[in-house]
Specification:
By secondary structure, the chain is mainly alpha-helical. It is built from ten helices and two strands; from the N terminus they run ββαααααααααα. Strands 1-2 form a two-stranded antiparallel sheet. The longest helix has 23 residues.
């Protein structure tokens, strides 16, 4: 990919971000939170009034990792919590949540754009590299969240999750986010609510 190419997007703050050569300082925290709250999983399909945002998904994955750490009698560092919260953050700037099979079809140029955005985000928020252990736990949380969202938010059956989507992880009954925020279990939040909750968490995890 040639560095002289430019692909600008306007951000909610009025700033501009070059998707091909992103600067870690090009956006505000509010920009990122709102973009992720306006980026929807599952192609925007939902059995609820709102589709599920990447912001809400990210908070769910973080909640699961925290829950498992408590159950194991340990805790997550602020840096590792940021890595969990921001694991899909580049999708907010790309504007859509691209499923893994489609990423493989889109190929290397798309992967490079996503990787450059993720590197800028990692630099900005001082995200640690995954270790084999932390990455395995993250992928488990991410896959459980995906299986659960597919059933409770999107309308796939548990059989379809296994046989069509190929996700073998369990589907949760209890919504960890309900204990934190109240509301109806598994109901996707309006974008302004998702943005505010994501931003609050991001600010709490600053160091």
């Amino acid at each position: 990919m040639t560095d002289h190419l430019r692909a600008w997007i306007r951000l909610p703050s009025g700033a501009a971000l070059d998707l091909i050569n992103p600067s870690p300082q090009a956006w505000t925290d509010q920009d990122l939170a709102l973009r992720l709250a306006r980026t929807y999983r599952w192609g925007g399909e939902s059995t609820w009034p709102w589709p599920l945002s990447v912001a809400q998904h990210s908070l769910l994955v973080l909640a699961l990792r925290r829950q498992w750490a408590r159950e194991a009698g340990t805790s997550l560092s602020l840096a590792l919590q940021r890595a969990e919260l921001l694991h899909d953050a580049e999708e907010g700037f790309l504007g859509f949540d691209c499923i893994s099979p489609l990423k493989r079809v889109l190929g290397e140029p798309f992967r490079i754009v996503g990787d450059r955005l993720m590197q800028a985000i990692a630099t900005r928020y001082r995200m640690p590299d995954w270790t084999p252990d932390t990455h395995a736990l993250h992928k488990r949380a991410d896959s459980i969240a995906a299986a659960t969202e597919a059933v409770h938010c999107t309308g796939w059956s548990e059989r379809e999750v296994r046989e069509v989507l190929g996700i073998t992880h369990p589907v949760l009954d209890t919504d960890p986010l309900q204990a934190l925020y109240g509301g109806t279990p598994w109901e996707p939040w309006p974008s302004d609510v998702a943005a505010a909750r994501f931003l609050d968490e991001l600010r709490r995890l600053a160091d």
